[in-house]
Amino acid sequence: MGLFSGLEGGLEKYIEGFFRDKFKGRVQPVDIAKRLAREMRDKKRVSVNLVYAPNEYTVFLSREDWLAVGSIAGALASELQEYLSQKALEKDFTLVAKPLVIIQGDEDLKPGQLRVESAFGTVPQLTGEDPDECRVEEFEDTLCFRPLRDTSPVPAVKQDHCFFLVVQEGTQKGRIFELEGFPVIIGRREGSEILLADNSVSRRHASLEFSGGAWIVTDLGSTNGTFVNGLRVNKKELASGDAVKFGSTLCMLKVE
Q1: Lower CB density within 10 Å: C or N end of the chain?
Q2: How much is the pLDDT for 144?
Q3: Torsion of CA 76, 82, 87, 90, to 10 degrees
Q4: CB-based contacts of 153: which residues, under 8 Å, 6+ apart?
Q5: Cβ distance 221 to 228 under 8 Å?
C-alpha cells in the first residue's frame, strides 16, 4: 500500500518520523497530497461521457523546503503519483496517462508555502530507453518523473459567452477576473484561482463551476458565508448582474 493510500492512517505515522523533524513549521506531505487532490478535482474537464483530470502536476516549494525534501523527493513523488492514480479511480476520473509529479523549488515562496500547477500533458518520444521505467531527471532544482504512455486530445468545456467577476466593493475594488470553463476556487489562500486579499474571506471560501450553460457558486464551509443578492446560499446558479459577496468583498457577475 502506498504512502498516501490512507491519509488518516499510515500517512500520519509517516509524518511523525522523518517529516515532523525535518519540516517543523513547513510544508508537510499531507499538505501536498491534499493540494494535488484539490487541483485534480478543480481542473477536471467534462466531456460527453467521461470526466478527464490532469495527468501532469508541478509542486512548487520554497527553496528551503525543496532542499529539505531533496533526499527523499524521488520516493515522495512516486508515492504522490500512486496517490493521484488511486484518487482518480475513487472519483471516476479519466487520466489520459499515468500521473506525472514534478517537485520544484521556487525562490518567490516562503517556507511553509506551496503552489501547484497542472496540465493535460503529452509524453516525449523515448529513444533507447525502456518505456516501462520511470527516469528521474534533475535540473534547475527540479525532480521530474516522466509519465509512461501517449496521451490523446482532451475536449474543453465550451462557453457561448464571456463571463467576468467584477469586484464592486472591497480592497480589490475594480479588479476584474475572467471566468473560463473550469472550476474556480475563491479564497484567501495562496494558490486559489481567484485570490481575495480580504481577512473576512476564508482560505477556501467558495467555488465557481460552469455547468449547463451557467456558473454555479458553492460555499465551501466559509466562516462568514457566501451571499447572492443579499441572501446567504450554499449553492446557487448565477445570472448576469447577480451580486455575489464573499466576506466583505462584493462582486458582480458580468456576461458579454
Answers
A1: C
A2: 39
A3: -150
A4: none
A5: no
Three-state DSSP state, 215: strand
Cα separation, 154 vs 175, whole angstroms = 31
Cell of 213: 450553460
The residue ranges of the chain whose pLDDT is under 50 are 1-5, 8-20, 123-158
CB 205 within 8 A of CB 222: yes
Residue 144 makes CB contacts below 8 A (sequence gap 6+) with 100, 102, 136, 137, 138
| CA distance linking residue 118 with residue 42, whole number of Å | 10
SS3 207: strand
Q: Which three cell numbers stand for residue 19?
A: 517529516
**Which residue blocks in the chain are alpha helix, DSSP H?**
10-14, 20-22, 29-42, 63-69, 73-91
Q: What CA–CA distances, in Å, run from 82 to 36, 117, 121, 195?
A: 12, 18, 17, 30
DSSP string, 110-168: PTT-EEEEEE----PPPSSS-TTS--EEEETTEEEE---S-----PPPP-SS-EEEEEE
Q: What is the pLDDT of residue 159?
A: 53
pLDDT of residue 160: 61
Largest CA distance in the chain: 63
Owner of C-alpha cell 513523488: 77
- The answer to whether the pTM exceeds 0.90 is no
CA angle 19, 22, 28 (to 5 degrees): 45
Neighbouring CB atoms inside 10 A of 256's CB total 7
